[in-house]
Amino acid sequence: GRDVKRDTRSSRDDMLSSSSSFSFSFSWSRSSAKTKTKTIKSREESLRWRSTRRGRRRPNAKGTTTPLFRCVNTDDDDGDYPKPNFDASSNDNYRRAKRMSETLFQNYDANNGKKTVIVIGGGLSGLSCGKYLTDLGYSVTVVERANVLGGKVSAWRDKDGDWIETGLHVFFGAYPNAMNLFKELDIEDRLQWKKHTMCFAMQDYPGEFTEFWFPEKVPAPFNMAAAILTNDKMLSWGEKVRTGLPLLPMLIGGQKYIDAQDELSVEAWMKKNKMPQRVSDELFTAMGKALDFIDSDKLSMTVILTAMNRFINETDGSKTAFLDGNQPDRLCKPMKEYIEGKNERGTKGEVLVATPLREIMVDDTSGEIVGVRVSGGSDGRNNSTSGSDSVGGEEEEKEAASSSKILTADHYVSAMSVDALKLHLPAAWKTMPFFKQLDELSGVPVINVHLWFDRKLRPYNGLVFSRSKLLSVYADMSECCKEYANKDKTMLELVFAPCDAQSGADVNWIKKSDGEIVAATMLELERLFPDEIKDAVLLKSAVVKTPRSVYRAIPGRNKFRPSQSTPIRNFTLAGDFTFQKYLGSMEGAILSGKLASEVVDDRLNSSGKPTFTIPPKEVHESVVVGN
Fold first, then answer.
1. Beta bridge partners of 450
2. Are the beta carbons of 532 and 459 closer than 8 angstroms?
3. What pLDDT score does 607 carry?
4. Out of 2-16, 368-382, 530-544, 566-580, which region has the weakest mean confidence (pLDDT)?
5. Percentage of the chain with pLDDT > 70?
6. For residues 378 and 354, what is the distance between their CA atoms, to the nearest angstrom?
7. Contact between 355 and 375 (Cβ < 8 Å)
8. Neighbours of 384 (CB within 10 A)
9. HEC assignment per residue over 146-210
10. What would the pLDDT profile of 421-463 be if each residue is shown by its tens digit?
């Protein structure tokens, strides 16, 4: 046990490192999301979006015109692909995450069942924390404000029975803790893996697409090199060389170099390294908006380098998978059931929905938590884990407000978003440097748009980078997800970003009406894909607005991200904004909950066996001096 602990501690240091692995997040919030579904009742009332423009063709080397490569499924690439072999000897990140899970499971102590832990927040970080605390043997209670689990990956049905998702969520091969979690819950078969490509819409050639193909059975970094070198539609050979040379310091300097770039925006880094502007226009802008919903001139370069580092170094790092159904039932429900007793040792906890936090109560002398005041409280059995047609539900909120109660435990974990946490911080904590640094972090807005069409648009079974001014990425969920499959009609799910001036938008889209957002989305689709959209009838639309999503990764934020361990002895943090190397993503959320479980075990473990001994991360000097 001691040897395993030491091995895991070094692994933990690697996982906390902020920038050596890939993070990818889409419309990543639930707690502050707002949604409305609009249905067109008749064909006469339907919105028809037409275009008089025709798709152009690019001249080839002989001067004649030929179609660009189109991302269209063929008989050879239709359908899903086998799960990659993540447990390969070369995949250090996956094996490190696996060892961490095994250590937590091995450190189970039956006496831990006498100790109670309350986790505030039922998103991925909270459920992950609850799952691994269950492995350690603790009695866990997870409380979630909304009437549906999932937090930033939640979903619910509208009145027609269609699923409305907070965001377009895609899993990457470079998510080692998520991949281990799926295996531990025995739900790996719920991931639908797609072909190993990255597909981009061609802005200058409406209706055309191009793909970067990663050849099978070619290890990293050679598969990515082949993908870049064999694509001649986006960058010239000269631009590829001028792009590759400035990345050499990342390969040589590794983590130290990547961390140092957090003070520079993507735009500033490119100018410093004399990279062509077209690289930003063709690649980095699309990546930036997909990674953090921010334009490249306002995004930290560390975010881009983090992604590229994992794509270059992991053979299947950029390979994508979609969940085969809605997130609350297909992912959150197994985690809930695990916490409530469906686990190897039968350790039983509790998961409550519709239980909003009202107050964190602290001792005036020690500053430690003596209890949390919550409202309501439901185990979710009446409404499963998926809710219906609302985020929290007005009736549930009214009922919750009238049934306040105090919950107590031996330890407390906040798995709330950074914005929600700041709202609930006790006054006695707000002046402490550790919590003061949270003032430097805030969520970024994002919008998720659903569009249902009366016909099958050109099908593509995978993620597409739209490379437009308003749209980040999109997917045809009627092709990508089994539960949403439809042979005759199309349902597009699109990430609308950036959404405010601070993120790079000319318009504050969060304050616009759903109709205005849908109209802008359709006009952009009409521009990008005129032949596809011109005759299609929009049957229904749904818009989910998230004013505060993942933390805004503008330059210089990493140094203010707090550790999971806090100065308050019986209080721990989880959440993708906390310090871990996967930034604001599903992987980051899962890892943060895992790391938080280590901190809790460190604080509560009194059996005499070695602990993780995890101190709080040192607060940046600017916060200390300012305070």
1. 493, 542
2. no
3. 61
4. 2-16
5. 82
6. 6
7. yes
8. 15
9. CCCCEHHHCEEECCCCCEEECCCCCEECCCHHHHHHHHHCCCHHHEEECCCEEEEECCCCCCCEE
10. 999 999 999 999 999 999 999 999 999 999 999 999 988 999 9
Cα R_g (the chain), whole angstroms? 24
Q: Residues 139-196: pLDDT tens digits? A: 999 999 999 999 999 999 999 999 999 999 999 999 999 999 999 999 999 999 999 9
SS3 at position 595: helix
Mean pLDDT of the chain: 85
Asked if the peptide bond before residue 530 counts as cis, ω within 30 degrees of 0, the response is: no
Q: In what order do the strands lie in the sheet with 357-362?
A: 357-362, 369-375, 404-407
| Owner of token pair 């640094």 | 437
The tens digit of pLDDT for each residue in 235-276 reads 888 888 888 888 889 888 887 898 899 999 999 999 999 998
User: How many Cβ atoms sit within 10 Å of the Cβ of residue 281?
Assistant: 14
Q: Both tokens of residue 175?
A: 């998510």
Please state the φ and ψ torsions of residue 600, each to the nearest 5 degrees: -60, -45
Q: Do the bridges between strand 116-120 and strand 139-143 make them parallel or antiparallel, or are there none, so unpaired?
A: parallel
Assigned token pair, 216: 């099978």
16 band by pLDDT with thresholds 50, 70 and 90:
low
Structure tokens at 430: 């707000």
Cis geometry, peptide bond prior to residue 562 (ω within 30 degrees of 0): no
627 pLDDT tier (thresholds 50, 70, 90): low
Which amino acid, residue 50?
R
Which of 506, 515, 501, 589 lies closest to 545, judged by CA? 515
Alpha carbon distance 129, 356 (integer Å): 18
Please tell me whether residue 428 adopts helix, strand or coil conformation. coil
Identify each DSSP E strand in 408-524 by its residue range.
Answer: 411-414, 446-453, 463-465, 471-476, 490-496
Rounded Cα gap, residues 42 and 393, in angstroms:
29
Cα 526–Cα 276–Cα 260 angle in degrees, nearest 5: 105
DSSP states of 291-360: HHS--TTTSBHHHHHHHHHHHHH-TTTT-EEEESS-HIIIIIHHHHHHHTT-STT----EEEBS--EEEE
Does the CA dihedral 416-421-423-426 come out positive or negative?
positive
pLDDT at 530: 86
- CA–CA gap between residue 24 and residue 174 (Å, rounded): 9
Instruction: Work out the angle at residue 272's Cα, subtended by the Cα atoms of residues 267 and 274, and round it to the nearest 5 degrees.
Output: 90
Instruction: Give percent of the chain above pLDDT 90.
Output: 64
Q: How many CB atoms lie within 10 A of CB 59?
A: 9
Q: pLDDT by residue (tens digit) across 73-88?
A: 433 445 799 999 999 9
Helix axis angle, 124-136 to 176-184, nearest 10°: 60
70 pLDDT more than 80: no
- 63, burial (CB in 10 Å: exposed 0-12, middle 13-18, buried 19+): exposed
